[in-house]
Design goal:
single chain; mainly alpha; Arc Repressor Mutant, subunit A; globular; YqeY/Aim41_N; Asn/Gln_tRNA_amidoTrase-B-like; GatB/YqeY domain-containing protein
């Protein structure tokens, strides 16, 4: 089943179950996918779809931090529920050990030896972990590995 078919199936199930939160999140993802398709002016690849869903997740995570800092626990709780739903459409996140191993392997692949090579490492690394690891966390691990 392709991604759009899964979204439509889940949308129908959420409507039947009268699950307003799930329905709103799925509609938001569907809308973001349609906007990306229109912007690109052609069908989205699976990587493009993954990037759109990851962007939806990132937006909600950023908002969650803002709501928690502002003391709006009611909105933060709602966003946590939405984040859990969005994560269902992303591949499983890499564990810290797996991510560290991929970082080390990529550094050896690129032949990086100092912080000057960070750009090359990140360029080679990000496609490998796309949608499965947070970019800031990857950046932090690469900096730590290159500064040894």
């Amino acid at each position: 089943m392709d991604f759009n078919a899964k979204i439509m199936e889940d949308l129908k199930a959420a409507m039947k179950a009268k699950d307003k939160t799930r329905l709103a999140v799925i509609r938001s993802i569907k809308s973001a996918l349609m906007n990306a398709k229109i912007k690109k002016n052609e069908a989205l690849t699976p990587d493009d779809e993954l990037a759109v869903v990851a962007s939806e997740l990132k937006q909600r995570q950023d908002s969650l931090v803002e709501f928690e800092n502002a003391g709006r626990q009611d909105l933060a709780d709602q966003l946590k529920a939405e984040i859990a739903i969005v994560k269902e459409y992303l591949p499983a996140a890499l564990s810290d050990e797996d991510l560290a191993k991929i970082v080390d392997d990529t550094i050896s692949e690129v032949g990086a030896s100092s912080m000057k090579d960070m750009g090359n490492v990140m360029k080679a690394l990000m496609p490998k972990v796309k949608g499965r690891a947070d970019g800031a966390k990857v950046n932090q691990l690469v900096k730590a590995a290159l500064s040894k």
